[in-house]
Structures are given as C-alpha cells and as structure tokens.
From TrEMBL:
It holds the Pfam family CTP_synth_N. Belongs to the CTP synthase family. Catalyzes the ATP-dependent amination of UTP to CTP with either L-glutamine or ammonia as the source of nitrogen. This is CTP synthase. The keyword Nucleotide-binding applies. Keywords: ATP-binding, Glutamine amidotransferase, Ligase, Nucleotide-binding, Pyrimidine biosynthesis. PROSITE patterns: GATASE_TYPE_1.
Length: 597
C-alpha cells in the first residue's frame, strides 16, 4: 500500500479537500486504484451532532456513517463508496483507546498519548486503507489521507506525531507528503509573498514531517523566481512545487495538476513510475469545457434554514449542478431564507419579505432541502403551497417532503391545525410523527441512517419512470420523523400519491402529485449519491421540468446511467462571473436580501 498525505498550512479553507480529491483522481486516471481517509482532529465522535453553520453539511454514507463533507468530495471525484471508518476523529481514537483500557488490554500500563494514542491512529489508518471502496475485492493501490485543520493546531498534534512515525514505519517509497499552503499577493506591492509558506514548512519540519511536494494556492500562477525561492528555503525541488491558482471551474484543478506534471512527482516519490500510465482525462476535459460554455439559465429557489452558509447544502448544490449540466443549462441558485417568507417578517422586515418572495416567484423551480427544528417551517410550507398552486416544479427532500404533506393536509384536506409532532407535539392532526425506533434521549447516531430500499408502488408515476422503471431503488437516509401511516389513505383519497414505500409498506418514501407538472417529495437524500456522470434521478427531473425537457426525459426512460456532465467541489465562489475564495459552485447565487453571495 502506498500513502499520500495532504496537509495544510498558513490558513484554513485553502482547498485541501479539493486538492486531495484531485490527487486521487489524477492517480486513478493513471490506472491506479485509490481510496481516501479524512482525519478531523475535533473531539466529536462524528459530524452527526454538529450544526451546519459550525461545520457545513453532514454527509451520510451507505453504512449510515455521518461524516465530514470532504468525504462527499472524495466520493464524487473518485466515484467510490466509503465507510464511516474512512473518517477518523479524535473522539473515535480516544474512545477506542479508553475502551481497550477498560477491558485491560494494556496490561496495567500507563496509557499515554505516545505510544497508545499514536499507535491507535496508525493502526486505524492501516486497517481502513485496505478496505475496498470501488466494488473490487482487493485493496486499493494508493490511500490519500487528508489531515484537517492547519499545521500548528494544538488539537492535531497527536496526529502529526503519529503520521511522522507512520512515514518512518512504511518507509521511503511508500509515503508522499503534499503540503498545501498559501502564497498571497499584497495589493500594496502586487508581489507574491513566500514567507507564510516558508514558516509553514519550517513548522511542519520541526514536527517531524518533511514535504515532498508543495501545492501553493494563489490567485495567479507562481512566477519562476517565486518557485526557485520556495525551493531554496523549503528544500523542495522546483519540479515538485505546484501552482494551484484560481480557475473558472473547480473541475479544472485535476487538469492543472496534470499540466504541471504533479502525477510524475507523486509517482516518483512512491516508486510507481514504471507501473502507472500517463493520465487519461478525455471525458473529464469535455465536461469541464462544457460547464464553462453553458449560458442559457435555469433558476432554482433554494428555500432553507441555513442559507447563510452554502456549505450547509453542498451535496444538494452539487446534485443540482450535475443535473443542470446534463440538461445543458447554467445553474443559478436563489437563496431564500425560509423565515423571510413568513408573515412575521412582513411586519418586522418588509424589505426582506418582499425580496424573498420576489426570488421565489422569479424561479423556474423550487427546492426545499432537509433540516431540523421549527425555525422557518411555516415559510417552507408557504413555498410548497406556492409551487403547488402555481404549478412550479417542486422537489422536497426529507423535511421538504414532510412539509409538502403538511401543506396538502391544511390546504386540501382542510385540517388547518395539521402539523408534525416535531414542531407541535400536541397537534390533533399529526401528519408527521416520531419513528418508533428513534431515541428521544440521545442525539448522536440514533436516526434512521444509511442506505435503505424503496419499492415503487405506481408503475406509470413520474418517479418510477425517472428511476428507469425499476422495481426498487437504494438511497441514503437521515431522519427521525416520518409521514403518519394512519393518514396515508386519507391523503391518497384526496389525490396525493405515495409512489414509493419501504419493504413493510408502512413507511412513506416518495410522494408526488400526479396532475402537477412536477411535484415530488422524497424521504431519502438523493443528493448523496449524485455523481457528475450519473445525476440523481429526482434532481434531473426537477431541472428537466424547469427547462421544459421532462417529457422527452421520461420517454427516454428516465435518468441515464451516464451523461456528459460536470460537478464542482465547493472551494470557489462566483460572484457576477468573478472568482472568489471559499464558496460553492459555478453559478450565481442570491439571498433573500437581494445580495449576490
């Protein structure tokens, strides 16, 4: 097994995740099989209990693991299926060591950070690295490890020490360290400054790790004299200093690496030059060029609770982009804070209220993503009602599906006090209820999580056709509440169709309005399995309906298994065509205050 470690210096948010994903992709294009590990030094056991404002979205894996969003980047770039153990946290490591101590596994020894914690980290990496993630039976050739945070952080010190020991254990030729750093340009002098990177590398070397390759983030390509200066002070060959400059499309990053022969530098360190081929990027290049050429717009109103941070809905944005490129449209997402649609906002902040409703009414489609808590719920209900009554394509995900059911109960069934027991435990008409197997005392890992099977109930429904007329589909879940099965017949008698159910027939998975151009809600999270070459069926249906292409899509048998499309990885921001740091997709985004973000 060969290992590539990606670390970051100077500041956070440089794009280590994109760099690690791109390195994995370029190695895969060289004919190697690749797996990935993300190390998060926080004390949480996993990302499941974190607020999206705190750490971005929680990405869910097939095995139910609630993990860092970077694992979503790995899965989308490499088209692999990772496990919960591919995300290492300080909490997991300390918990495993303390469990061993309680069992007496250390035979009376004093349990310390060195060697017990550091050994546990190394053992975890070696164990997980050999787990196949690409459908094959044998281990991968290369494991790409991303160390979260920034060199010098106190919380990452045990991992730095463990990785220093690990590089010595596996030996030269089996370990390559790539350090992602910042080369800023001060506006006053207009010169690329190397000192931050010099200090970062010096700090890394003082901790026992020596970088083989420098990946330098900058607004423009590095000047030759800057590379020479970095080489001199950081003890890295000029050929191993890669310039990661801002690009029009994040999918250009692997191409930038290829053009600078990054793969040759990595393969040389890992002694794989005689094994690997030249990277093949034909289709990838086509996708990238296509994404940049799109100009005909499609507008989607994203009505959510966490619209202040685009990373909260990263996978949803990716899925929308995969589908919009498949439909040959340029994606524009209008961020609509759900609470700004409510009547309270009309009194307290009429400008925000007016702007949010203008965004909603100007959209080609409406999407209500998942979420927790009661803030903004009434605004989401109003958005679903607007889409239903005005025949605007609508997609509700998880809570977005439950919202659509509540709205239908209030507007069509006449149950004005209908609600979810999550928001009103004493509602006389509980359309959505707490699942029997859930826990009301423990939050972490107690939801209905991971891949579950949905069986289609109606053969000629839009959802069945979108999924290729299959009898069932496996999708990833993350929820505590479900549609009340005792009210299903009442809904169906009123025209609402539950076209997908679980194996028991008691749990509702897909709902749609047959007489609406496109009104679908799903209890699962289809965004987690959307890929650039294989967009999610329900997302593709939403964009196709918004573009007037749904009928032709359904006649072709639904979502194709492979299309020429493109995706991005959340490290760029585009504002009126200008590339900025730390954002989301190749498109223009507006919030309810009329601000482009």
């Amino acid at each position: 097994m060969k290992y590539v470690l990606v670390t970051g210096g100077v500041v956070s948010g440089l794009g280590k995740g994109v760099t690690a994903s791109s390195i994995g992709l370029i190695l895969k294009s060289c004919g190697l099989r690749v797996t990935s590990i993300k190390i998060d030094p926080y004390l949480n056991t996993d990302a499941g209990t974190m607020s999206p404002f705190e750490h971005g979205e929680v990405f869910v894996l097939d095995d139910g693991g609630e993990v860092d969003l970077d694992l979503g980047n790995y899965e989308r770039f490499l088209d692999i299926k990772l496990t919960r153990d591919n995300n290492i946290t300080t909490g997991k490591i300390y918990q495993s060591v303390l469990d061993k101590e309680r069992r007496g596994d250390y035979l009376g020894k004093t349990v310390q950070v060195v060697p017990h914690i550091t050994d546990a980290i190394q053992e975890w990496i070696e164990r997980v690295a050999v787990i196949p993630v690409d459908g094959e039976d044998s281990p991968a050739d290369v494991c790409v490890i991303e160390l979260g945070g920034t060199i010098g952080d106190i919380e990452s010190m045990p991992f730095i020490e463990a990785l220093g020991q690990f590089s010595y254990r596996v030996g030269a030729g089996n370990f390559c360290l790539i350090h992602v750093s910042l080369v800023p340009v001060l506006n006053v002098v207009g010169e690329q400054k190397t000192k931050p990177t010099q200090h970062s590398v010096r700090g890394l070397r003082s901790l026992g790790l020596t970088p083989n390759i420098l990946a330098c983030r900058s607004t423009t390509g590095l000047d030759d004299n800057v590379k020479e200066k970095l080489s001199r002070f950081c003890h890295v060959p000029v050929d191993s200093i890669i310039s990661l400059y801002d690009a029009s499309n994040i999918w250009r990053v692997p191409l930038i690496l290829r053009d600078q022969k990054a793969h040759e530098a990595i393969l040389k360190v890992l002694n794989l030059k005689g094994v690997a081929r030249e990277p093949v990027f034909g289709e990838w290049t086509s996708r990238t060029e296509l994404c940049d050429r799109l100009h005909e717009p499609v507008r989607v109103a994203m009505v959510g609770k966490y619209t202040g941070l685009s990373d909260s809905y990263l996978s949803v944005l990716k899925a929308l982009l995969h589908s919009s490129v498949a439909c040959r449209r340029k994606l524009f997402v209008d961020w609509v804070p759900a609470s700004d649609l409510e009547n309270e906002t009309a009194k307290e902040n009429p400008e925000n209220y007016r702007n949010s409703w203008n965004l909603l009414k100007g959209a080609d489609a409406v999407l209500v993503p998942g979420g927790f808590g009661d803030r903004g719920v009434e605004g989401k209900i109003l958005a679903a009602k607007y889409a239903r009554e005005n025949r605007i394509p609508y997609l509700g995900i998880c809570l977005g599906m439950q919202i659509a059911v509540i709205e239908y109960a209030r507007s069509i069934l006449g149950l004005q006090d209908a609600n979810s027991t999550e928001f009103d435990p004493n509602t006389p008409n509980p359309c959505v209820i707490f699942m029997p197997e859930g826990s009301k005392t423990h939050m972490g890992g107690t939801m209905r999580l991971g891949s579950r099977r949905t069986y289609f109930q109606v053969k000629d429904s839009k959802s069945t056709k979108l999924f290729g007329n299959r009898s069932f589909v496996d999708e990833r879940h993350r929820h505590r509440y479900e549609v009340n099965p005792d009210m299903v017949q009442q809904f169906e008698d009123a025209g609402l169709s539950f076209t997908g159910k679980d194996e028991t027939g008691r749990r509702m998975e897909i709902v749609e309005l047959p007489n609406h151009p496109y009104f679908i809600g799903v209890q699962f999270h289809p965004e987690f399995k959307s890929r650039p070459g294989k967009p999610s069926a329900v997302f593709l249906g939403l964009i196709a309906a918004a573009c007037g292409q749904l009928d032709s899509l359904l006649k072709k048998g639904g979502a194709p298994t492979h299309v020429l499309s493109n995706g991005t990885s959340g490290e760029k921001f585009h504002r009126n065509g200008t590339t900025l740091a730390n954002g989301s997709l190749n498109g223009i985004y507006r919030n309810g205050n009329g601000v482009h973000v």
